Amino acid sequence: MRGVLWRLAGSLPALVAVIVVTFVLTRVLPGDTATYFAGPTASAESIAQIRAALGLDRPLPEQFWSYVQALMRGDLGMSLTTGQPVLVDLVNRLPASAELTLVGLLIAMGIAIPLGVLAAVKQGSLADHLCRVIVTAGVSLPVFFTGLLLVYVFYYLLGWAPAPVGRLDAFATAPNFVTGFYLIDAAIARDWETWQSAAAQIILPACTLGLFALAPIARITRASMLAVLGAEFIRTARASGLSSRTIILTYALRNALLPVVTTLGMVFSFLLGANVLVEKVFAWPGIGSYAVEALIASDGAPVQGFVLTMAILYVVLNLTIDLVNRALDPRARHS
Amino acid sequence: MSAVLDVSDFSVEFRTRSGIVRALDRVAFTVRRGETMALVGESGSGKSVTAYALLGLLDAAGRITRGRAVLEGVDLTAASPSELARIRGKRAAMIFQNPRAALNPIRPIGQQIADVLRRHAGLSRRDAMAGAIDMLKQVGIPDPARRASAYPFELSGGMCQRVMIAIAVATRPALLIADEPTTGLDVTTQAVVMDIVAKLAAETGMATILITHDLALAAERSARIAVMHAGHIVEDAATKTLLANPRHPYTRRLLAATPTAAGSLAALRSIPGNLPDLRRDDLPPCRFAARCDRRLPGCDAKLVWRTIEPAHRIACWNPA
Amino acid sequence: MSSSTLRHARHVVSENPVTGLALLLFAFFVGAAILGPSLAPYDPLASNTMRALQPPSALHWFGTDQIGRDIFSRVLVAARLDLGIAAASVALVFAMGGFAGLASGFFGGWVDMLVGRIADTIMAFPLFVLAMAIVAALGNTVPNIVLATAIINFPLYVRVARAETVQRREAGFVDAARIAGHRDMGVLLRQVGPNIMPIMVVQMSLTMGYAILNAAGLSFIGLGVRAPTPEWGIMVAEGAAFIVSGEWWVALFPGATLMTAVFCFNLLGDGVRDIVDPRRRT
Q: Per UniProt, what is the membrane topology (chain C) (predicted)?
């Protein structure tokens, strides 16, 4: 338990770094916030006024302090495009992004881990070759392009998937809010029609993300499985006559999963970025498309809020990965 | 005493990129109930390959090319992989050097023993765990019920080797192969570990093959010693006979290099010449010939194993 | 390059024909980047509304877009910009990350700590999101895309350069140079620098594909390069609207070209790694 608290404290520097960088990006670098707010036609005088009103004429440490205070209050500013506080927008849209990312990750792990295991256990087999191809091709896929390809094939050509218009088709209504994940909320409400609509809508974008995350997970699974299969304790297990099922699943895979879990940190880094692109392609109403819309409208506050949210999310995910790792690895618990 | 394991004409080859390695050539020996036999030789002489090949643990490149190895009436060379998996850990078990690395790092040690009991004795989860705790007690681990939930990294090397032994003998195998079981342990722990093996062997009538490069250990712990050189067993005799009256030139050199019989790897290396390259197509019949000072013209024609006295076999035309 | 390296390179290529294919593609892309504008059959910016959204034909190999521009010409001309951005960012991060890692591993102490902190801070962000933030803050220009792409790769380069330097430093020949009276900076640049070069070249070729993807991704969401400049990411974004109505060629050709380019550079990166550092082969 103390270890867990220690690890929590350990993620503080990352959090501080994230806040400082976000602050620096918004205040110090060119692209003056006051000019931004005043609009292109503003006079120097009105810019100075806005500057004073925003507190931008005060010394930097002071500005940073008021920035941190605002963050503490949950004040991320107002969105010019939606007219809502950025925090409200983000909270409303975050579940959409989270659901998409998680489903994508589940799809990727569901395919990549068995594939990587198979490739390692049966070296030189079809699965091994498939794994190699996926690993090399997978990292070369521009995620926005694969998304479009899937839309073209499965929506336009085959008509299997619905139009890429967001989380639900036009005839469905959002289920009552419980978790914000439509698949879970609709299941709780036993509203299977809505569930089906939500599932149909999420499948293509989630597969796009999944395809993207497939390569790194399959590669690390294969590599770490190969390493573990060569370990001395596997030889012991074989010498003890344990069934190959026990050897591969209980002995090898559990050990091989430790590096896989650690690598998920890197996978999440890519996945959260790819999420922005996929949301744009599929008009997915998450925080990524929110940020892209704000970028196009030169609306600063939502972009800052988005970057901060993503970074905090990433810190939290890394923390979770660490805790999962501790749960899986007794050695990590004791160090 | 009846033979637990009878190996005859046993040959193993490895197919590698740089050619076929003739790792074992017509190896033959017998181990009887309750007996401890030592396989002694330099590294690369084929001691471990013998053990791995017997239990079907060779990697894909290795295969048994001829011979028989009969364990309690079952020919291991003719057994299918799944039959071998049923025999391994049940009727023939193995312990390894570097015990900490040889245990699953993230599985409680009690669980690892229980896994073997569940597989081979068909015990329930609960009974297997009770059996595991009992085994921990038998190998002298204090407070076994609590230690059963410990992980290998929480135990000393000696304790880990006791756990390895517990895993190996949990199902009361007829044969235990101990592959350099004391390497990496300190001297007192070595003695304790070997005592435990001896005690369990005495209690259950288990036969033991002790694989070691340490002639002193072999002399102290085994009733018989088989000396290996480059994939051949060159001399096989009762320990007393072998130490007092070695006949093969290689054995003599081994002993001469270790006057007090306190042989060690460093001492074995002091024998002039190297092991021959086993990939050569024109391997001489006697693989020691190039290093031998008693070589005769006939040595280049054919290698024969001769029983010169009861239970004393050598592979030499011109024994000392 | 010594003759044995050459022989090894030939061995790697002959053993893995895919690397040969990648080399061919590489030559093709470099050719397009250099000669593209003079080879393009049409002006990449010239619109012709009479011929808007034409499917591929003998006249327009890749078809035309919504305002009748020739997609083949645009894809061809875009090679210079896309590959240029990626090459520039890789060169920049090679200089920044390579030097920082070198100094960090060589001097240790506070230099090491500072560089480590900077790298950690960058790693605290999801990388693409950080790149978005940098371009959004610094302004929507091509140099800023280059910079952002370089920055997000910085930690990787630092780590590799640092690890190699520490290894070399411990190898002892740096001490020898110091004893011989060379000043630290000189030792750093002349003795250690060239020694870590091969591994850094591997790193560069391995990250080139990612740099292309990253820049195109930024353009896709409207950052950096602006329409009507021909660039693969923007062209895919423009074509996205037509995918649902069946005009596949508008997005497909720039997208497939982008994908092929990234694939080619990734294969090449693997090939270069096999040649320079066979141990890391997986």
A: Multi-pass membrane protein
